[in-house]
Amino acid sequence: MSGIESGASGKRRSPERTVRHGLVEQEIFDHATRLFAERGFSGTTLQHIADAVGLTRPGIYHYVKSKDDLLSRLLAEYTEDSATQINAIAARTDLDSPSRLREIVTLLARRQGEHAARFRLIIRSESDLPNTLATRYEQSRHAVLRSLATVIDRGITEGAFRTVDARVAALGILGTVNWVAWWFDPDHNDNLDAISHQLADTAVAGLLDVSGRQPVDGPHAAIAAIRAQVDRLERTLRS
Which GO molecular function, any one, fits this protein according to its record (predicted)? Predict the structure, then answer.
């Protein structure tokens, strides 16, 4: 709208009001994350959140429709956005498989460090999630796992990664990265960029094929590479 947005009432907001709305909304998200973590989702009311932000109960409805709406937006911002970004990296054709994996792990580790409180909240609130939110959350989790496993599987086919169970490898990487939300501490001079890159390098190094195979391009080359591996295995068994 050329710098003007519409509010909940349908009236247009000036750029200044739009900025203020965004800042208040982010403050609501931050306080809601803290209160949900402290009290649990069922033990937190919109009045608790309004009081923490300094809004009246009617005032908070200018920003969120309900407690479920607020949690839905917190989930969407964290899990669904992550799934979309990771899927986009997995689909990139300008990167090889190790580079795709490195980009994905770096992104995941950085998000865990930047939004640690929100991730911990999601984990602790899983049993309290309304059915529709629980379904969306599970779909996003599976989408992330699927994209990561696809990248690993493609790397195996290309000959860049050694032969492993791609799903198990993906689960292992996600388990490692998810722990960042518990141990990362910026107050103790933890460098999130350095941590993210180190975890990404470790993930890639753990999968790289160092047997001397050359990366392959295309299904026919992949089949030829597999046949060569079988031939080597048969020679080994006969020796």
Answer: DNA-binding transcription factor activity
Beta-ladder partners of 6: 12
pTM above 0.90, yes or no: no
Q: Which residues does residue 13 pair with via DSSP β-bridges, in sequence order?
A: 5
What pLDDT sits at residue 179? 92
Range 60-78 average pLDDT: 83
Rounded Cα distance between 169 and 108, Å, is 15
The per-residue pLDDT for range 170-192, each reduced to its tens digit, is 999 999 999 998 998 877 778 99
Range of the domain at 21: 1-64
Give, in degrees to the nearest 5, the angle at Cα 65 between 60 and 66.
90
Query: Which one of 12, 46, 64 terminates a domain?
Result: 64
Task: Tell me, yes or no, whether 102 and 27 share the same domain.
Answer: no
Q: Are residues 28 and 119 in the same domain?
A: no
Closest CA to 73 of 24, 114, 33, 35: 33
Interatomic CA distance for residues 129 and 89, integer angstroms: 29
Q: How far apart are CA 138 and CA 133, in angstroms?
A: 9
- Specify the DSSP element, H or E, that contains 63: none
**Measured in Å, how far apart are the chain's first and last C-alpha atoms?**
74
Kindly give, in sequence order, each residue whose CB lies less than 8 Å from that of residue 193, ignoring residues fewer than 6 positions away.
110
Q: Please indicate, yes or no, whether residues 190 and 204 belong to a single structural domain of this protein.
A: yes
Question: 162 in helix, strand or coil?
Answer: coil
Question: What is the secondary structure of 202-219 as a DSSP string?
Answer: HHHHHHB--SSPPP--SH
Same domain? For 13 and 30 the reply is yes
